[in-house]
User: Which sequence fits this backbone?
């Protein structure tokens, strides 16, 4: 779809797409070697995303991470609000301890840690880090296969990770190796084989009240009309 | 339950909650005590887990506002603000000036009501049996009436919308708040007089449950808990969102990180919020409350956003993973109560049983926020 169209008639539904393009455009000015950044972004959401990902700003947190971790594979790109860095799961503990202790990074505050179920692409663990001193923030992610979901615990780096990891285990079934006390936190103690926030656990359909007529069988709402 | 009989001491497990007046909701902790000393604490949460995140993933962006209210039910406007900010970032919506001002006014008044609730309940935790609670609730009620007048609800407002507000405020909005502010300020002063100089309060709170700054950051504490330990980190100042850079106010900071400092920081924060409200009322512009080009259906791009506000309990953040469409693919709530409560064990061990209640009270948890 040509971009002019969405801009000229500026209709309401075009609002959502505009948001995608602005960071990509801004990046183009800075990095001209990415001429194809715009088209796949607007059209195909999932598949061709790898090439279209805008680069993070130069000299920012992504560069500092790369500088502090020269022999670790980092894949950084600019998200809508944060710089996102993808790392291999075997590197997680190394990356996190350097991120916290390296004076250039100083990411001492673990904002949040959570899982995302990407269905066919596996599971993702997201770490949000923040530095009070430097004021910079970064999102670090790692990908796990759904049937072998385990990653090193970062409780040795941040105590804050303790409950976040227990919650993520509850909801996604991700095992955090070397966690000191990985037992269900929010779910019942015996509920260790059912992971409610995975996408293969859909909510049952919500039946909405369709009118003033009462169902003949009563109020249960179980019967489909 | 007596575990073991020996010649000298016996450790006893004391179960507290889930139905207990001092646990501020359905929260259970198992204290292991040696005489009057707490030697271990095992918190049990999850009694209020409703799956707010999962539910929010299954309804469109507007419908999910209701679930945000029901997480931190003492700071509903702030939860709505965080959620709406996240959706606005995702859809690149521009919020009109007037809406921003009304949001700030309501959020700051909401912070005051939340802190009044804390101050009232905190007195009960320390053994006031209702005096502070009555003082706090008298003033809270006046502000609650304003919220009711504006939104039509007493608790679950559902008033903010991605892009602005559901409807404009009543004509007497500004006057209504100006009339109440002196009462609120006086009410805070009453509580201040009642508690700050009180010897019993000092004895029950000073030096109790202290956590130093380094540990506080390592435990991921935020909000008044973190500032009581000596950091001046406040998202309103350090990562300014909405229009907070236009007001003149101070960030109160403690130095000991104990229960008393947490109380003082919250008390002073309430005063500062009233300052922000006064300035915002002076500057409140006329104009529209929703952007002109508002999409009928909110459809996000394939992207991820994070938006956070400085809530009364700390950083309340919403992370949305969108895969296109009108629903969030994954919505994560960074609940400040959850993060702050995780540090309970480190704060409580070594103190007396009676202080465990004061320490838990000083965290100012909302269990619906902890469990989501």
Assistant:
């Amino acid at each position: 779809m040509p971009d002019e169209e969405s801009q000229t008639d500026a209709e309401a539904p075009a609002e959502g797409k505009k948001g995608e393009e602005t960071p990509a455009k801004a990046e183009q000015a800075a990095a001209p070697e990415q001429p194809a950044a715009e088209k796949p972004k607007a059209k195909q959401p999932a598949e061709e995303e790898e090439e279209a990902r805008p680069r993070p700003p130069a000299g920012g947190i992504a560069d500092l991470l790369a500088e502090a971790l020269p022999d670790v594979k980092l894949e950084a790109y600019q998200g809508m609000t944060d710089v996102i860095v993808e790392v291999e799961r075997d590197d997680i503990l190394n990356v996190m301890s350097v991120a916290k202790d390296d004076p250039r990074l100083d990411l001492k505050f673990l904002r949040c840690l959570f899982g995302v179920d990407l269905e066919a692409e596996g599971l993702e663990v997201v770490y949000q880090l923040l530095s009070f001193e430097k004021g910079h923030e970064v999102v670090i992610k790692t990908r796990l296969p759904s049937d072998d979901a385990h990653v090193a615990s970062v409780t040795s780096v941040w105590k804050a990770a303790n409950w976040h990891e227990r919650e993520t285990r509850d909801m996604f079934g991700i095992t955090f190796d070397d966690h000191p006390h990985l037992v269900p936190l929010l779910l019942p103690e015996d509920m260790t084989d059912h992971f409610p926030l995975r996408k293969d656990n859909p909510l049952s359909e919500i039946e909405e009240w369709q009118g003033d007529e009462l169902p003949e069988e009563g109020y249960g709402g179980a019967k489909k009309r | 339950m007596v575990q073991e009989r020996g010649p000298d001491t016996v450790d006893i497990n004391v179960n507290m909650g889930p139905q207990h007046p001092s646990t501020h909701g359905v929260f259970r902790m198992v204290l292991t005590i040696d005489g009057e000393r707490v030697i271990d604490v095992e918190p049990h949460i999850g009694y209020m887990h409703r799956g707010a995140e999962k539910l929010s993933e299954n309804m469109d962006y507007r419908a999910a506002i209701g679930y945000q209210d029901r997480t931190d039910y003492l700071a509903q406007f702030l939860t709505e603000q965080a959620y709406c900010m996240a959706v606005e970032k995702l859809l690149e919506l521009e919020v009109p000036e007037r809406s921003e001002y009304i949001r700030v006014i309501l959020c700051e008044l909401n912070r005051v009501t939340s802190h009044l609730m804390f101050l009232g309940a905190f007195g009960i935790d320390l053994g006031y049996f209702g005096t502070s609670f009555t003082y706090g609730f008298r003033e809270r009620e006046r502000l609650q009436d304003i919220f009711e007048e504006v939104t039509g609800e007493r608790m679950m407002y559902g008033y903010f919308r991605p892009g602005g507000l559901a409807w404009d405020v009543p004509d007497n909005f500004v006057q209504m708040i100006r009339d109440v502010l002196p009462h609120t300020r006086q009410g805070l002063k009453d509580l201040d007089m009642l508690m700050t100089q009180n010897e019993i309060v000092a004895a029950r709170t000073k030096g109790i449950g202290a956590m130093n700054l380094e540990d506080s950051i390592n435990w991921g504490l935020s909000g008044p808990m973190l500032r009581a330990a000596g950091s001046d980190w406040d998202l309103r100042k350090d990562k300014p969102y909405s229009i907070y850079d236009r007001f003149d106010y101070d960030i109160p900071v403690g130095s000991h990180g104990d229960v008393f400092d947490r109380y003082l920081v919250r008390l002073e924060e309430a005063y500062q919020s009233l300052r922000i409200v006064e300035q915002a009322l002076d500057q409140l512009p006329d104009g529209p409350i929703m952007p002109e080009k508002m999409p009928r259906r909110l459809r996000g791009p394939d992207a991820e956003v994070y938006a956070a506000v400085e809530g009364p309990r700390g950083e309340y953040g919403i992370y949305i993973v969108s895969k296109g469409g009108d629903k969030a693919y994954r919505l994560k709530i960074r609940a400040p109560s959850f993060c702050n409560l995780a540090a309970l064990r480190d704060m409580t061990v070594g103190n007396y049983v009676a202080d465990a209640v004061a320490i838990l009270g000083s965290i100012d948890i909302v269990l619906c926020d902890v469990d989501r």
Remarks:
- Residues 12-371 of chain B form a domain with the Cytochrome-c3 Hydrogenase; chain B fold (CATH 1.10.645.10).
- Chain B touches chain A through 55 residues (CB under 8 Å).
